[in-house]
Amino acid sequence: MKPKIISGVLLLASVIFFTGCPQETTIAKLKADPGRYYDREVALKGTVTRSFGAANYGGYELSDETGTIIVLTDRGVPGRGARIQVAGKFINGVTWGTQSYGTVLREMGRRVR
Fold it and tell me: Which domains does the chain have, with CATH numbers?
């Protein structure tokens, strides 16, 4: 009886864990099919090529081997050259200040690699 309970608990835990993880993709896939990813949580890996902002608000350009994308954040910006993994919501048509950005990622979490 205990093996059935343990296997049931493990199955339930794995289902909960994997449904909470954002879908990892590339920048090129996001830009090639924005309708598929719009307002969904995705994960990207890459290198910060530039950053801007003040008082913990701003953005940074993330680059992977397939392209670049702007990531907006309210947690402070990482430094240039930082290799990170970021999770966030993919959104379209963002204006910040006087600058318009077509597609951006609104950061929900980040991890330095």
Answer: 22-112 (2.40.50.140)
| Predicted local confidence at residue 4, as pLDDT | 62
Q: How far apart are CA 71 and CA 86, in angstroms?
A: 9
Q: What size, in residues, is the chain?
A: 113
Both tokens of 8, joined, read: 């049931």
Buried b (16+ CB within 10 A) or exposed e, 28-63: ebbbeeeeebeeebbbbbbbbeebeeeeeebbbbbb
Minimal CA–CA distance to 99: which of 62, 67, 59, 68? 59
Is 0.85 topped by the overall pTM? no
Q: What's 82's DSSP letter?
A: -
Pairing of the two strands 23-24 and 41-54: parallel
Say if CB 75 and CB 67 are below 8 A apart: no
Cα Dmax for the chain: 65
